[in-house]
Amino acid sequence: MLVGAEQARRAVASRDARFDGCFVHAVRSTRIYCRPSCPARTPNPGNSTFFPTAAAAQAAGYRACLRCLPDAVPGSPEWDLRADLAGRAMRLITDGLVDRSGVGGLAAELGYSARQLNRVLTGELGAGPLGLARANRAHHARILIEGTGMAFSDIAFAAGFSSLRQFNDTIREVFASTPGQLRSRRGAGPADPGAVHLRLAFRPPFDAAGVFGFLRDRAVTGLESVTDLRYARSLRLPHGTGTAVLRPKAEHLGCTLHLADLRDLGAAVARLRRLFDLDADPVAVDTALAADPAFGHAVAVRPGIRVPGSVDGLETLVRTVLGQQVSVAVARRGLGVLVQRLGAEIDDPAGAGVHRLFPTAEALAEHATAAVPGPRSRADTVAEAAAAVAGGALRLHPGRDRQELRAELLAVRGIGPWTADCVTMRVLGAPDVLLSGDLALRRGAAALGLPSAPAELDERARRLSPWRSYAGMHLWAAATGRAHLETESS
Predict the structure, then answer these.
(1) What's the whole-number mean pLDDT along residues 134-155?
(2) Which residues are identified as catalytic?
(3) Phi and psi for 305 in degrees, rounded to 5?
(4) pTM over 0.85
């Protein structure tokens, strides 16, 4: 946990929603665990205990509160801040890797034995990879139970359970209800049988203007469609394809998913949460940055700024390479040409204007030199990087160690420190990367009275650690003058 026991008690006593997702609060007498902001009567301190994860509470025999639904909260910001084994493992477990490849596959991806991984996760998070994956499956099953009219047997398969019996037993153990009782509490599923409707929670404040503006400026025709109040895009997922439409609300992002294979629900949700940086702790970030005189006004103007992440590591790498030493508009046009030439067409069931996927690593490795517009050297870099991804020499996923990934990127011809740092910041969600060589950030630094020379800016920004990625977004905003965005009320 990021908080100690005494701070956790104070958070529960004050029902402080800022701590939702950072830990769970369990009541010994009722054997129920809750989010810190649960509206139920606060128990006596001696009757309370705290766990770092829902999986740890479940392993200790507690079941989820159906009043506050402690699984329906932002994820812990600790996983973005931590670059250690536990943090890297949690990002991959949330993406569904254990369900797809087992604990052995997760351990191999992280470079540890299954026994070492289980020991570390149990010691630090209170549950091993199987327990953490089980909690993840239960959460996604509840979403499908309450948000669709699917048959329970189909939900069991989609959520990653090996049998209907295992699904029923897990729902009873975690929620103290049957699947039918959970569905009846929330009413009938939505009218559109092919869609899954979700609320992606975040910790306020949330700078919707910044994220949606960033994505709108870089939106690639056919792959994405962005307006002030809607972001839509296609998704390449482990079991198939999908499309997502997201709209900013007062306390969450409304999300509608159309998935070719519902087993991809967990991966889709995890990747969209990373794209919008929804698990961030904006109060901690804003408090730290506002303490610096140069950023006080910037934080007041744009509270809750986010660092846009990634739904596809290869796509982010190619975007970054094509953005080298050119304007955002030029890079966007080049990406549009590439997607039109090599991206596969898909259905657009939501009518959102997204009908192409980003090209595969194999397609880019074979055809990038002819399909990538601009200098031949840039096309060669894309082809070499894609070949490394296709061959497994370059792995672009959020469970990577930052320094190892950076070194692998720098080994590709045409990739320098700016590109490597930009990719690691977005793909890994690294919170402490300042792109001091970026021209726009340097202009923003000058606007805030900071040194604009990269070496001097790096030295000045040391005091902003571990939030230098967020400081960089403030500098970018200062350079572009991004305005606020009104959100829908519900």
Answers:
(1) 91
(2) 34, 438
(3) -65, 145
(4) yes
